[in-house]
Amino acid sequence: MNKVNKVFISYETKTGKSYAEHLKEALEEGNYSSFLADLSIDKGTKWKEEINLALNNCKYFVVVITSLTLRSKEVIKEYEKAMGLKKRIIPCRYSQLPVTETGTMSELQQLEFSDKYELANKVIIELNKINKREEKQIPIEKDANEFLNRGILFYNIFNFRKAIDEYEIALEIFKEIGDKAGESACYTNLGVAYCNLGDFRKAIEFHENSLKIFKEIGDKAGESACYTNLGMAYDGLGNFRKAIEFHENSLKIDKEIGDKAGESKCYTNLGAAYYSLGDFNKAIVFLENSLKIFKEIGDKAGESACYTNLGVAYDGLGNFRKAIELHENSMKIAKEIRDKAVESKSYTNLGVAYHSLGDFKKAIVFYENSLKIFKEIGDKAGESKCYTNLGAAYYSLGDFKKAIEFPENSLKIFKEIGDKAGESACYTNLGMAYDGLGNFRKAIELHENSMKIAKEIRDKAGESKSYTNLGAAYHSLGDFKKAIVFYENSLKIAKEIGDKAGESKCYTNLGAAYHSLGDFKKAIVFYENSLKIFKEIGDKAGESKCYTNLGAAYYSLGDFKKAIEFPENSLKIFKEIGDKAGESVCYTNLGMAYDDLGNFRKAIEFYLKAEKIFEEIGQKHYLKIVYKNIAVVYEKMNNPEKVEEYKRKAEEI
Predict the structure, then answer these.
(1) Rounded to whole angstroms, how far apart are CA atoms 637 and 634?
(2) 3-state DSSP of 425-446
(3) End of a domain among 114, 137, 160?
(4) What three-state secondary structure class fits 10?
(5) CB contact set of 525 (below 8 Å; sequence gap of 6+)
(6) Axis-axis angle for helices 620-636, 640-652 (nearest 10)
(7) Contacts (Cβ under 8 Å, ≥6 apart) of 549
(8) pLDDT tens by residue, 359-413
(9) In total, how many domains does the chain have?
(10) How many CB atoms lie within 10 A of CB 198?
(11) Residues spanned by the domain of 645
(12) Is residue 227 assigned to a domain?
């Protein structure tokens, strides 16, 4: 029998070659001749000319999407040329390759494979479907599946706007021909694309359309996927209770139909939702359930993702050492399966954990490693987030100029790729940097930009954060009453969406505002409300900060014994969780309390402990404060030499 219908197989050599070679073999057996560069080009021939000739002559273009595909300039050139030549496009995505950054798992309608046999089987089925459509003389310009596949390819290379354009063309054709399954697939994929762009309301609209159809045609797996996607969209809006409701619906169906992989993804998504609510302990329970299943079914990528999410949850609890251990487990697997994207995210997460520990210099090293990989693999969204993290690390070091430079790089990319949620986050980070520089008016302008976008995309959690940040800026300007108004707006939203961690932070901020107004008793009430919630949700770092704030409030009331008691509680926790920055702040506060008690030697002892840590972690701006405080104490001790020494040290910073 003569071989027919030439297939061009595009792949990345390191991670896709074995899949591509098996696919070629299977296609030959199935009466499809195929072109595979490594096997189809003879030595000594001109490689580029042969590839161009094969692309011109092929009928079908299959692209095998593995972890390094985006890094391959050759693959990118090949699919761009194939689209220009109007070849039939069949994108095939390795199922263990993560696309989103959220820690949750979306459900896209696309051709996925878990091994080389599934890849070959699904490609042959897809080719046979295309042949049947061609027998009906459906031209490529009228083939909805062709536009759907093009959209899927654009989605997988993070070009969400282009993906949406292709999906919309496919949707119109599916509607015209009355193909309900195809119509539903388009709604699903449009929803996932808009979710990635931060337009969660539009995403919900499309997922609801998809859900309606899947219910009509009795597709339980499709229905479950819709519930998952709706949960993710509501999570993006900050409506975590609603998100949990949808993820529970999805979990129920996956258990009914025996979909273990789907069940595990549901546990992951429920864990992410409870994490967003600040219920870190409950998040850990769900994530451990997910990890157990991924291990059972041998899904290494899923296992790696669970370690990542568990690390983030332990970070939320303030157990940064445990978080580091889990992120290292994730990193190990990522390297084993040669998944550069996950490896890069592991570097990011390790950076975040060390940042939380107050080791900002080590955090920067990890963020830079992450940035290097994201640039290599062409992940613009990941690159942008690295710039954001680097900005935050330099902010913590007191280098506010660099803290502005990096988020500006990030903002530029988010605007380019049309990520509104990311753009909003950049304005937030820039606002904080300008706040650090003392340019509070500029900070307010940037936080207002962030607020505007959050309202546009109806991101309630983002809106709440903007109110908090505006409150902080007005607080810095000394307009404490205006700050309180913004903090109360933030608190209202946090309560509405069930964000316990956010609610607790609002109480902390309100306490700080009343503290600044001199209403120390009211400040204590808010700090105690905050402490109660942090204890409930098991947030040790948050609990410790509350003790610090209560100590400061009692210090202002002149109750120096309590001013010592609370920072000691705080210090104990910061030492347990390994938070060096928090530990040094406690030493500073204890130094101030003992100073006012007239115990100058004890005050110096604590200030010197704070000095040592601030030097280690590079927090120069706090170090300057400590030097000034030490100089004041030595002045009270009538030690002019020491006074001059520490004044000089402060001036040199």
Answers:
(1) 5
(2) HHHHHHHHHHHHCCCHHHHHHH
(3) 137
(4) strand
(5) 511
(6) 160
(7) 508, 511, 512, 515, 523, 527, 530
(8) 899 999 999 999 999 888 777 778 888 998 999 899 888 888 888 899 899 999 8
(9) 2
(10) 25
(11) 539-652
(12) no
